[in-house]
Every structure is written in C-alpha cells, then in structure tokens.
Amino acid sequence: MDRTAWIVVVLCVAGLFGWGWWTQRETAKQVKALEVQRALQAEAKAAEAAKPVAPASSAEAPAPTATASKEGPVDAREVILENDVIRVHLTNLGGGIQSAELRDHTRTMDEKDGFIVINEMGEKPVGALSEGPGSIDDTAWKITEDSGKAVAFSRVTPEKLEVTKRFVLPEAGKEQHQLVLEVSIRNTGEQTVQTGGQFLYLGSAAPLHPDEWPRQTGFYFLDGKGGDVLYKGADYFQGRKFLGMGSGPKAHDEFQINLMEWAGVNDQFFTTLLRPMEPYAASMWASRFPIRIKGQEAASQKKQLHAVEAAVSLPDIALA
User: What is the secondary structure of 251-301 as a DSSP string?
Assistant: First the structure.
C-alpha cells in the first residue's frame, strides 16, 4: 500500500495588495486578482505534473503533530534563499521561513533604514506546524537540501509521520515574490494516522508605524463555496459592546472555511498569502499579540499596537 501523501502549496511571502483591495468598493479588483491567482494555480499544477514523483493532492500543506521538543537543546541553523527582490531567511527550528526581506521595498525613502521585513515581529516561522494558538512547532528539523534555489527540512513526528517541507524559489519569468512550498508526508508506523487537527502557521503581520489604524493589520480568507472574503482587523479581538450587548475581548478565535482558496495575514501594504493547489474544507485560528516598533517604543505602548498571527488547518487525510 502506498504510504505517502503528497501535498503541494503555493506560498506568497509578499503579495503587494493594498488595504483598499479588501473593501467592498474594490470588488472588481478582487475578481481580477482571483483570476490571476487561478491562472498561477494552473501553471503550478502543470509544473508539478511534469515532475516524475508528484501527484499533487488535495491542497495545502503538511501534516503531523507539532508539539515542543523534549530532546534537549539543539543549535539553530539559518539557510538563505534569495533573488533580486527577496531574501528569505529559513530556520531549522520549526522548519520554515523566519523572515523575508523585500529588497525592492525600503522602510522609508532612506535606504539606510533597511527593507520591509515579512514576519518581522513573529517568533515562529511561516510554514511551522501548529496544534492551535500558543502551540506552534519549534523542534529541530533536519536540513536535507540546500541548493541555493531550494531548501528542504525533514522530521519524523512522535506519531511516526515522516514530514518533508521543501521551499523553492520562483523560476525566471514568474512572480519573484512567490515561493512554492511542497510538503510530503509518509506514515512510517503501523497505525493509520489522520492529518486533521493540525495547522500550518501563516506567520504574523504588524503595523509599520504607530499611526496606522488597528483595522489595517489583520487576517483573511476566501471561501470558494460562496465566493466571500472574510477580513478581520487586529481590533476584532478587543470586542465590541453597546449598552451591554455584543462580544467582549477574546485572546483568539477560530473560523470554519467551507472551501479555502487562499488565506493570509496582512499589514497596511503587504501580505503573506497561502494558496493550496486545490481548495478544501479547512479551519483557521487567529490571534494577536502586543508589539513595540523599534525606535518608537513609547508611541507603540501608548497606542497599544498589536500584531496579528494566524494558521490554517491541513487537509484531513488518512495515512495508512
């Protein structure tokens, strides 16, 4: 019996979507962007089909359990993938993207201030496995490939699932901010294991300066069943009450998605977006955490700035 499930996802570490893209007044832009994404999906499918190995399965990402390591201290290792527009810093702790510098976008008009950094405020890497809010994998993964164009991490989980995550730079002529993440899962044990209940971490997004509105940093997803985009800003978690009615503050929340086409987190100008090869039924958890912008700590504290983080569940597959 074939004990391997192959799952392929496309991970955009820097889609340049403006805030207005998400408002109802920009519906036409949403439709156009969706058409582009579906075209990219078709291209990615064709490329994957050309590989000798690869049935691209239901959707998005990997599969096992993501509990913290009990194996003692290990050395963190960093691997870099880069092209003309992006420099991606990957870590073996959690096996994912710790941060990504946008080399074509400086923080200010002065280049000495450095580049925009995706997941700058996040402690855990994009692509890490998660069991829920506050439970994100940071175990040591083995680096099995480092070719300059692709980096792969592998690990066997306590459930005897051998998981490999492979991050690949885009080919020439493709969108250069967009990485492909290939995830394979193999059951090396004797018992059937379900991949459901695990999440893939989308990373975090944070305000770029203290004057941004809380709603300009948030999380979102497209439910393909109804064609609806759900968007929630960082202020969503503080709750809203009027005359004693409404909801109070919440540390995190979870959402059901009938047919996830894509999902992500965003600040005012940039987003980390994950799009599975095939849409599937999923859930998303999201939360926020307080941040301090370097050099503007007092203003950050006064305005109670928060970053947003989120994760989407894996396809529920039985591996025999």
Answer: SEEEEEEEEEEEEEEE-SS-EEEEEESS-EEEEEEEEEEE---TT-HHHHH
* 318, β-bridge pairs: 194
Positions in the chain short of pLDDT 70? 1-74, 109-113, 241-247
Give the per-residue pLDDT at 175: 85
Q: Give the Cα separation of 101 and 92 in Å (integer).
A: 18
| Backbone φ, ψ for residue 53 (5° rounding) | -90, -25
| Among the listed residues 203, 206, 202, the one whose alpha carbon sits nearest the alpha carbon of residue 303 | 206
Chain segment 234-264, per-residue pLDDT in tens? 999 987 755 555 667 889 999 999 999 999 9
* Cβ-contact 76, 91 below 8 angstroms: yes
For 202, residues 6+ apart whose C-beta sits below 8 A from its C-beta are: 126, 219, 263, 264, 265, 272, 274, 309, 310, 311, 312
Query: pLDDT value at position 147?
Result: 96
Phi and psi (nearest 5°) for 67?
-85, 160
The number of helix segments (H) and strand segments (E) in the chain equals 2, 22
Contact between 96 and 125 under an 8 Å Cβ cutoff? The reply is: yes
Task: Provide the pLDDT for residue 39.
Answer: 55
Three-class SS state of 211: coil
| Contact predicate 315/183, CB 8 Å | no
Q: Return the pLDDT at 30.
A: 41
Tokens encoding 304: 């109670």
What whole-number distance in Å separates Cα of residue 214 and Cα of residue 208? Answer: 11
Euclidean distance between CA atoms 210 and 181, whole angstroms: 33
Quote the CA–CA distance of 205 and 259 in Å, as a whole number: 24
For residue 164, report the phi and psi dihedrals to the nearest 5 degrees: -125, 130
Enter the pTM of the model: 0.78
Task: Scan for tokens 């893939």, then name that residue.
Answer: 200
pLDDT of the residue at 4: 53
Tell me, what DSSP letter sits at residue 176?
A: T
**Can you list the domains of the chain with their CATH numbers?**
4-319 (2.70.98.90)
